[in-house]
Design a protein that fits this description.
The protein is an alpha/beta fold and 192 residues long. It has six helices and seven strands, in the order ααβαβαββαβββα. The N and C termini lie far apart (37 Å). 32% of the residues are buried.
Length: 192
């Protein structure tokens, strides 16, 4: 039996290969998991845009998850078939960029993920800021098409963008200690 082992001598080439092979829908997970490492399990989480990776992750890190699918009825049906056994999961189908506003959210949301309809992602962030949600994560923040410049970040909120993988993921938070933690934890992983 012959065993061949190939080592890459160039770390940046290896890192580039890993970045090119990662599923673009999973790129927010590293940041999301770091956020929950710092803030712990949350009482009420809202997810705008259901995902194979994000919905399961948020179910793990929350006592209650509300997910809103905004782009595809078929995707909504798939996710409900796979995850409806979770008693702490509530789900809605609003196939329209701003139809989610028909839901009446109260001020008990402790974490929100904006990864739904492309035309409303910054609007979701702004709406969650208005509700004083302490931690908001948004996906695909490297793409100006979404209108990220339209976010109205108040003085008490700060942001951190994780650029290790494309698409980028950004956290908007009133928890300044969380930003310090993320800068320390994630900025150590420099792209060469």
């Amino acid at each position: 039996i012959a065993i061949f082992v190939v080592f890459r001598s160039n770390i940046s080439t290896t890192h580039k290969y890993i970045m090119e092979s990662i599923n673009p829908y999973s790129t927010p997970l590293e940041l999301i998991n770091k956020v929950f490492e710092f803030i712990g399990k949350q009482n009420h989480v809202v997810e705008f845009g259901m995902g194979d990776f994000s919905t399961n992750t948020l179910l793990t890190h929350s006592h209650s998850l509300t997910s809103i699918e905004m782009q595809s009825e078929e995707w909504y049906d798939k996710m409900v078939r796979e995850l409806s056994h979770h008693s702490k999961w509530t789900h809605f189908k609003y196939i329209d960029p701003h139809a989610y506003r028909a839901l009446k959210f109260n001020n008990n949301i402790t974490f929100a993920l904006s990864d739904g309809h492309g035309s409303s992602r910054p609007c979701v962030v702004n709406d969650m800021i208005e509700l004083n949600v302490p931690v908001i994560v948004a996906h695909d923040t490297e793409d100006r098409y979404y209108g990220w410049g339209n976010i109205n970040l108040p003085e008490n909120y700060k942001s951190f963008t994780h650029k290790k993988y494309k698409p980028w993921t950004t956290v908007y938070t009133s928890n300044h200690e969380l930003i310090s933690f993320l800068e320390k934890e994630l900025n150590e992983e420099k792209i060469h």
